[in-house]
Input
Amino acid sequence: HYTMDAIRNCPHPKVAMIKGICVGGGLEIAGLCDIRICGTSSRFGVPISKLGLVMGYTEISALADLVGPAIAYEILVEGRIFDSEAAFEKGLVSRIVADEDVESEAMASANRIADGAPLVHRWHRKFLNRLKDPTSISKEENREGFICYDTEDFAEGYKAFLDKRKPKFKGN
Output
């Protein structure tokens, strides 16, 4: 439970590199990542119903957030193992690549993320999480989207754009 909360609440973008089988707890952990890249031969599922086990609230909420409650329920009650194409269709994975390319693609994704502004990544996560709340966005919340113009990240990104170079953000 504490591990799941730590992964979920980690402020940094997370990339799951999925090679081979990804079931049960492995799927729970991968599902908490922001980007999930798997190989064509990867297999997925949560066959705990066949063991008489229940998935706890923390874990089930992560699965439901990822694929929606109807698909999460299907995955849980059927308890079947399915292929990478079905995982992609259900929204469990972001990308399928050749098995031998999983590591290089996951690292390339992580490097593209690392090249971005860390503050912007945190704001995007905050905004996406806030959008889950059905209440109206306040004027103050809307204004928060413009705070970035007063940051060192924006100044560096803008200068790098004008200089036609890769930006060097603090923390990267």
Remarks:
- The chain is about 50% helix and 10% strand.
- The radius of gyration is 19 Å.
- The CA atoms of residues 20 and 42 lie 4 Å apart.
